[in-house]
Amino acid sequence: MQRLPRGTPILRGQLHSKPSNGHVAFIPQIRKLVFEFCEAWPTSAPLREVLGLHAETLARENPHVEIVVKKRMYREPIVRGFYLNDRTKVIGLKKLTKSEVMDKIQLLLDSSGAKIKSLKGQPVQSTTPSTRGIWSGMHVEEPFKI
Amino acid sequence: MRRFHPNSFPLRSLPSTKRISALPNAPFPPTQLIERMTPAQTPQLPQFSPEEWGSIQDPSPSALHALAARISFLSTHSPAAKAELLTHALTHPSSLSVYVKYYPRAPLPTSNKALAAVGNSLLGLFAAEWVHASYPHLPTRAIKAAVSAYVGPRTLADVAKEWGALPLLDGLVVQCIGLLPRSVIALLARHSSLADARNFTHTHFLSRIVDLEHLLNFRAPKVVLVETAAKFGMERPISRLIAETGRYSNVPIFIVGIYSGSEKLGEGFGNSLRMAEYRAAEDSLNRLYLTRQPSHLVRLPTSAFPSSFSYPHGLGSFSSLTRPPAPGEEYVAQELGEAEVLFASSDRSGKQAPAADPSASLGASVVGVGDGIQHAS
Lengths: 146, 377
Fold this sequence. Notes:
By secondary structure, chain A is of the alpha+beta class. Chain A has a domain at 30-110: 3-Layer(aba) Sandwich (Glutaredoxin), CATH 3.40.30.
């Protein structure tokens, strides 16, 4: 919550709390996986095989994900991940082997759905104050004298 | 005459990313509508809107199962039972009028209005008792505001969104989205136990982050501090200068601590003595009012309630509320915190009595603020 200027009335309806996912309960961010494949083309063969062998296991191991299998005739196979932040991630599975397809599925399952951005130059920001406090030049043996 | 034929609706023009599995399982268009389509009745027929009709269809079972798994809803129940209960929790009262329009002869589904009312009371109960037990000295109005922050309408809408329930609640406004979490709490209390509903509230609502310090706003912290110290039977607080630099420069810094006897109550900084003392008084009050009970010592009154509220013998079994608990399970009430100091509250003008001059409040013999600070030896 942003610190308001002194005297600003606090309106009951506007009070809210910030999420802390993973603090007590953890809600995985993926909501739905949609597999789209062609029944005729050989580029979809690995995905068809993966779905035939592992679709049930995948659904059982990830009950929080809605798994949808959809025909998309005469197109290349894709897998679409839907996330809680209203974003989607789509990965093309054309000419991937079975193990590569599995890796891509795992990637979507583990992803947060957030937009990918460079980690370089982004300072780490904490949401809570540090336990040790901030170093203060005024609390040393002899403060700096001007 | 307008014929309702599946191909006549531009279903393919719907965004394919949104409704892939939300496609209704009921026959489309509704058979009841087609039966009534005699030429004489045509003018009375509702204007058919696919979106509106789609909004009253049951959500797909897979989406419901995923939602139930995401929030670990009633894990002992069968998937079908969970899906049915969640469908109930997702039925907003506003959808009933649409339902009547499209299915005039079908029995009306039950809306979540009653559930949400029960759930709202339970959420308020759990949040209020937890805030009060965790922050024993928090002032009453701050407790009320904290409860609103933890389980208020905005938080409920956010929580529903974070559960991924929004695609199932398409087109509802924020106030209506909040009915889902409330209904879920009510369903847990009804179909599992009160303890489960409480745990769920603690897991999903009370573990969220609320800045309580922001809710405390002291108009004259120094006056409040003096009165609060008197109420707690402590020595009159005295401010002392802990450190300073650049007093005669244009960037002075003062660190002021407030002490009651030998006990340090708080500390503040400022580029004037007055500001530092003000911040120190505010810090002292925050430290007192935001004192937190360690979580393993928090005792919640509802833990003394029976685990379920089923009354097989009618209201007579209210005696179960007063039944002596099993040995080792006795509820020992937590010590109550001191009520806050109230001042300048007799009228609503917010003006203080002239005697309570904040500048003359701290220190034993004080004329001005600068003089009031006793320098640390």
